[in-house]
Amino acid sequence: MAVKKKTKRSIPRGWPHGKWSQQAKRVLRERYLIKNQKGKVIESPDEMCYRVAKAIAQSEKNFGISDQKLEKVIWRFYKLLVSGSFLPNSPTLMNAGLDNSLQYSACFVLPIEDSIESIFEAIKRAALIHKSGGGTGFSFSKLRSKGSVVRSTHGVASGPVSFMRVFDAATGEIKQGGRRRGANMGILRVDHPDILEFINCKSEGGITNFNISVAITNEFMKAVERKRKYNLIDPRTGEKVRKLDASNVFQEIVKQAWKTGDPGLFFIDNANAGSANPVSSMGPLESTNPCGEQTLYSNESCNLGSINLLHFIKSKPGRRSKDLGKRINWEKLAKTIHLAVRFLDDIIEATPYPLSEIRQATRLNRRVGLGIMGWSDLLFSLGIPYNSGEARKLGRETMKFVHDEAHLASQNLAKNRGSFPNFRKSIYKDGIPLHNATLTTIAPTGSISIIAGCSSGIEPAFALAFKHKANGRELLFFNTFLKQQRKKMV
After folding, report:
1. In b/e form, how buried is each residue of 358-380, taking b as 16+ CB within 10 angstroms?
2. For residue 36, what is the domain's CATH number?
3. Residue 272 predicted with pLDDT over 80
4. How far apart are the C-alpha atoms of 479 and 484, rounded to whole Å?
């Protein structure tokens, strides 16, 4: 009898296997699992988890771990992934362990200065990142307004929106790692002279590969509340050029958001005043990643991952308790948070960054973004309405726990790995050393929630039954908890 040759993907005997839904298997086959040159899938979901766990765990060697302990880390990472209790962002699942030079992070922000050279350098860098599997965010606020004089050519500037269309066209030609389309975030300050054109740019067509957000200032919001005009500022000279009625601008934002889904709002002053900007000496934060959940400095990247809350319920579905906190297995959740933070930090070491500037900027602050998914399903399971006071109370308790445990995990990492290089310049400098400048975020978890078999992010259930259409395929979803209730009624 022929003996099956052990490959790099072979899972050690006796290790657990995952429970994958039909929807998860299909998404994994289409976009995540290894294929041979003929396009045939040659990797199972469990083998993918082993491939990723093994690749990310190799980073532990950078911190002096022994070979014996390394095997234990691989085992713990594998069990974490294959159970569906935690999953990292898609680029990690797609690329880790393949030696294809494609990086593992999903979130990037690139700088754009007011020059043709900077604009097209940013387009080139975005193309490399999109090819590599990531998404990019940009602030177009430094670009001179439409009609401004260009001294070098004696011509006139075409404005930020015109260049956004160039970025959009370039993005449309590139599939991320050959498996998903590129994604961008475009941000413009509300006091930029071209703000009205920006607010309406999605409805006017020609921009399809961007989410857009208006950078809202505190001054603007005060003007809205007081129904006053506010100043538009020339980004090149810093001079006031004219005024707009703040209430009218805000109503235009609301109108277009209802019509097209964009723009969103990025409260830029608030983002720079709190812990979202822990190293303010590096300058103000100007942009976010494509979905808006992660603020980053220029050339920074961040890798994300989310915990499936469905895996931490003690009681049986449908039973009620006055003390909701007793329904959550906090000890198990804490252990998962600590391991997930370690996994995400290891990604920082393991990823083959597309550019040296990004590697340097990322390692200065070592940002990671640990979030949650399955929140709606958790509430279904506990019999709690999504819009209830009980849900809000449990939400506050849960996220405070995730935040506190993630920071404790980073403090523990700092004991062996040191604090992040910018720690002494950060808001944490007088406290216990941290290994990571930021630790938590709430991502939409579109694909990984399908893989994990839970509701996405912290969103309410989209519908109790629906079809999910993407890239020519169609997936049918029927709410698990509705199925359970129907069985009880029969």
Report:
1. bbebbbbbbbbbbbbbbbbbbbb
2. 3.20.70.20
3. yes
4. 9
The angle formed by the CA atoms of residues 114, 214 and 370, to the nearest 5 degrees, is 100
3-state SS, 97-120, equals: CCCCCCCCCCEEECCCCCCHHHHH
446 is a domain residue: yes
User: Could you tell me which residues come within 8 angstroms of residue 179 by beta carbon, excluding any fewer than 6 positions away?
Assistant: 31, 32, 94, 133
For 239-393, strand residue ranges (E) read 240-245, 264-267, 287-288, 295-296, 301-308, 368-373
- Distance (Å, rounded) from C-alpha 283 to C-alpha 190? 19
Q: How far apart are CA 360 and CA 373, in angstroms?
A: 31
For 292-303, letters b (16+ CB in 10 Å) and e give bbbbbbbbbbbb
| 36: number of Cβ within 10 Å | 9
- The strand pairing partners of 176, in sequence order, are 180
Catalytically active residues are 289, 291, 293
Q: Phi and psi (nearest 5°) for 473? A: -115, 160
CB 103 within 8 A of CB 351: yes
Same domain, 98 and 116: no
Report if residue 294 sits inside a domain: no
DSSP 6: P
For tokens 């198990």, the residue is: 332
The torsion of the CA quartet 91, 95, 99, 101, rounded to 10 degrees, works out to -30
**In the numeric block, which tokens belong to residue 292?**
């808006």
Q: Is the pLDDT of residue 4 over 80?
A: no
Same domain, 58 and 119: no
Q: How confident is the model at residue 317 (pLDDT cuts 50, 70, 90)?
A: very low
278 and 146 within one domain:
yes
Give the pLDDT of residue 133: 77
DSSP-derived pairing of the beta strands 368-373 and 301-308: parallel
Structural domain range at position 155: 111-282
Q: Are 381 and 481 in contact (CB under 8 A)?
A: yes
Verify that 138 and 62 share a domain, yes or no. Answer: no
The verdict on residue 297 lying in a domain is no
| pLDDT per position as a tens digit, 208-233 | 899 999 999 999 999 999 999 999 99
Cβ pair 236, 184 in contact under 8 A: no
pTM, rounded to two decimals: 0.91
Percent of the chain scoring above 70 in pLDDT:
90
**Dist. CA 346–CA 73, nearest whole Å:** 11
One domain, residues 132 and 230: yes
Helix (H) or strand (E) holding 142: none
Residue 357 within a domain: yes
- Apex 370 CA angle, 368 and 372, nearest 5: 160
- Cis ω for the linkage preceding 263 (within 30 of 0): yes
- Helix axis angle for 330-350 and 45-57, nearest 10°, is 70
